[in-house]
Amino acid sequence: MKAKFKTEEGVFDAKTRFALYGFLNKQVIVTVDYPISTGKEADVYRVTTGPLFEKNGRKAAKYAAAKLFRIETANFQRMQDYIFPDPRFEKIKHSKREVVYAWVRKEYKNLLICKEAGVPVPEPYLFDKNVLLMEFIGEEGVPDTTLKDLGSENPEKDCGTLLGYVKKLYKHGFVHADLSEFNVLVHGYPDYKLVLIDLGQGVVIGHPMAEQFLERDVRNIIHYFKRYGVRKDFDETMKWVRGK
Length: 244
Description:
The chain has 7 helices and 12 strands. By secondary structure, it is an alpha+beta fold. The protein folds into 2 domains: 134 residues, Phosphorylase Kinase, domain 1, CATH 3.30.200; 99 residues, Transferase(Phosphotransferase) domain 1 (Transferase(Phosphotransferase), domain 1), CATH 1.10.510. A 5-stranded antiparallel beta sheet has the order 1-2-3-5-4, with helices on both faces. A 3-stranded antiparallel beta sheet has the order 8-10-11. A two-stranded antiparallel sheet has the order 6-7. A hairpin with a 5-residue loop joins strand 10 and strand 11. Helix 2 packs across helix 3. The termini are far apart.
């Protein structure tokens, strides 16, 4: 089984390996290829899908993305602010491991909400403990680039698109809560679309800080596109987003 990994084994702790072995044993994936992105709390790897990946109606796809959440280095305090007030996760034990496991479930559920709202996000496939398997966003096996790294070719349009996503999600009872140019992928060329990622911190409207998070998301978008000369009034934009 160890030969299945193309990455250095030192990247994975025992719990993460166990979850990955489960996907390998079930032939959902056959290899863990290379890191797409790395961070203090989670790393995302491209994985090659196996013969049983299409089970349960999933579309045929050569690659998927595996998001591996680090348990020991997770920012427990930050996660608590997003997860414990969320009415969907009121009965979680206050231990780092249980919070990280809940965070994975939360991102899975949040991705489903976005899909239902018609907002482009990676399709969530499966999760186990601290590993989330989801759609690989890229072309010909090469992962797409973030808006932060690639920049905007059509700032006025892109700003309107992202604010439109925020409005759609809010109407659907959901807030991304960490939306910025760092968490948007640019997919396709020349007729590209913007895809939201990193949904773990997203909250439903029942969260006591949902409105504050909503305003922060809108400010981040307005601030980013201001450098391109796009001017949006914050108060007017918030009225539009809230449908007032």
